[in-house]
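Case study: BHLH domain-containing protein.
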Amino acid sequence: MTLFFFFLQLRKPLVEKLRRERINSSIEQLKSLLSPEFLKQQPDSKLEKADILEMTVCVLRRLQQQNQQQRRLLNHINKLQSSSDNNLREADFSLLSSTVQTSITKEKSPVNSAVWRPW
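Here is what the predicted structure looks like once written out:
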């Protein structure tokens, strides 16, 4: 049993080192993705990991707000379009109704009373 604990004691620093490497790699990736944003805000300063994480949070929040605004705008456009479609349907129905009325009136007139023959 002591051999197992000895193995765990040796393994723990290695696992911790790999964890730190993953964190550092991810932070470097964030830095490279956000570099134009960093250059605008802090052109000549060395960035710490905390700075990179804070800037990432700011950018993600801004993107989230833009996404919400776009969704609200799309919902508004859809409502307007739906309202417009309903108005068009009502206009189409009234046009169709008046066309049918005109057609019925013409059929009753003596000019159109002749039987239609295809030959």
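For the exam, be able to explain this: The radius of gyration is 36 Å.
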